Amino acid sequence: MIVARRLSPWRWPAVPMRRLASVADDPVVLLIDKAGKNLGHKTMSEAVRLAAHSHGDLFPVNTSKQPAVYKIGLASAKPAEQPLAPAGAAEAKTSKTCKKVKEKCVQFTTRTEKHDFDHKVASARKFLLEGHRVSIVVTLINKGARVDKGNRVLTSMTLQDARDRICNDLADVGKLHGSVRDIGWRHTFALNPLHPPPPK
């Protein structure tokens, strides 16, 4: 005769309260050594012991993460005291080295008509005279011939022709900055102002 046995529900194994208290007192952290290698999860006491064994200190990297991330590193030496600089010297140095250059962008195409082309060149000239760097973008558009109101066929320029025309028109106020970026169907280059901007 077979007797059916009633199976009891499965439960997690009981953890002694003493072990829970030790885990709470010694949290688990993610440890990184001096070379940046991930050493995995260690308890705080193990991390301190490994740092002392490698003659280094334990530095927190990200304590808001769970588990917290700590790294073993050398104790930073105390920097030597620098002589006091006169008032305003730091501000003058910062303003001289951190000069901000505002860049304006003007876009052309190889099908831009003469009136629009001259207007864009005039805008670029205005920006250069104000002391701004101008980024020029010339895009190739070659979708066949167009006809204007007078039934005249408008032929498109090549990228080289458009770039040379822009540089020649702005040669008195700007100079080429760096090299021309050529990706086949678009040329991108920048012009720096030749003369400093007028005082305000």
TrEMBL record:
Signal peptide: none annotated. PANTHER family: TRANSLATION INITIATION FACTOR IF-3 (PTHR10938), TRANSLATION INITIATION FACTOR IF-3, MITOCHONDRIAL (PTHR10938:SF0). GO terms for biological process: mitochondrial translational initiation; ribosome disassembly. Belongs to the IF-3 family. One of its GO terms (molecular function) is translation initiation factor activity. It comes from the Eukaryota. Residues 27-72 form the Translation initiation factor 3 N-terminal domain. Keywords: Initiation factor, Mitochondrion, Protein biosynthesis. This is Translation initiation factor 3 N-terminal domain-containing protein. GO terms for cellular component: mitochondrion. Pfam families: IF3_N (PF05198).
